[in-house]
Amino acid sequence: MGVESSIDRDFSSxxxxxxxxxxxxxxxxxxxxxxxxxxxxxxSPFYREMFKSLGINAAHAGLGDLAALPLTDKASLEERxxxxxxxxxxxxxxxxxxxxxxxxxTRMMYSDTDLSRLAYNxxxxxxxxxxxxxxxxxxxxxxxxxxxxxxxxxxxxxxxxAAAVRNGVNTPASHMEVIRRMDPSVIVGVPSFLLKLGQYxxxxxxxxxxxxxxxxxxxxxxxxxxxxxxQRLGRELENLWDAKAYSTYASSETVxxxxxxxxxxxxxxxxxxxxxxxxxxxxxxxxxxxxGEVVMTPxxxxxxxxxxxxxxxxxxxxxGNCRCGxxxxxxxxxxxxxxxxxxxxxxxxxxxxxxxxxxxxDAVGEYYVVVDSEYELSDNIEVRVSVTDSACTAAQIAEKxxxxxxxxxxxxxxxxxxxxxxxxxxxxxxxVRFIDKRGQ
Length: 440
Fold this sequence. Notes:
This protein is α/β, with parallel strands linked by helices and 440 residues long. The chain has two domains: 1-335, 3-Layer(aba) Sandwich (Rossmann fold), CATH 3.40.50.12780; 341-436, GMP Synthetase, Chain A, domain 3 (2-Layer Sandwich), CATH 3.30.300. It is built from eleven helices and 21 strands. The chain has helices at residues 22-43, 45-54, 74-79, 112-128, 149-159, 172-182, 191-203, 232-241, 351-359, 394-405, 416-423; strands at residues 92-98, 106-111, 136-139, 163-166, 186-189, 215-218, 244-249, 258-260, 267-268, 274-279, 292-298, 309-315, 317-318, 330-331, 336-337, 342-344, 347-349, 364-375, 378-387, 410-413, 434-436. The strands form five sheets. It has a nine-stranded mixed sheet, sandwiched between helices. The protein is globular.
């Protein structure tokens, strides 16, 4: 049997939708959603079975019916992985692994059209940041180990005509040498690592603020808090590099990016590429500005299309048009993972809130948070930190955290080397700042 060819889509025909009025966006999304529902029924074994069992008539479903349609969670994607595949084996162009609910990675399979859609999505994102021909972008994110992030940013950088330097997950010394030779104008990476890289360079006599890099594309960690104000990590990063730091957010399952523009006022979603909802614990949509779980319906996906996919991430939608002039939906920073929600003495909070509070204590160096539980509805929080001022005590840190968080965690001060050994685990591509021992 020969290899099937991919559907030829002209994604650029949707360029103007980013700044269109609400009526035009609604009409375009309605048509794309109807196409999406028909594709699910005709090509996805999982959704064909679901629609039949629930009596859903895909041909008559429109955007007005979206909130009444079933949600899809990661457990289903993991348990019935093959049934989500909507193309034949000959149409698969790339396979990545996404984290599963049991710790076992789940396969996500993309067609060539999906990869073109990915490049288009990232082209829009990079273009919003003013990146284009003449720019040189250093990628400090991995292109291997079955991850999608590095491939996505590479595709976007090339799609806008900039040059990519793929140094990947490497040592600060290696990146410093690349920066010395290539003098990139754009650097892509995890913000805490980019801060660490800049500090290393400065200790070696190379001032990051004196270099060409003025755009930092940040992945994996939020830069802003619930109030949309830049947190300490972001402030220090921008000051150290004398550059603008921009947040991006995406998931392997939805392959759809939310990226800030130069206004730094939330991550834009191109309307033709997906529909975003924020839902409560019962899966019901909540008003703009209210926090809840991010649910995505990616449009124009071929390989493993999804309907109302629960990402497990908690955020909120932002009202009004952006200062940049775009009318596309904007997502606030990720303020936590739903499964990482902490309940302590009647107060609910997420790890990023603890991180932000620690970042604002000058004497705190590195840190991580351990949560365990003796009772179902009451968690214990322990914060393990290193300090830059020996006069700072665990009791002082605990008091400051209580004032900010309304709960008082246990605090232990440990040697900096010991804390760093946990946070910068070589087996993890991101800093490890949260250890969940509940249920163990």
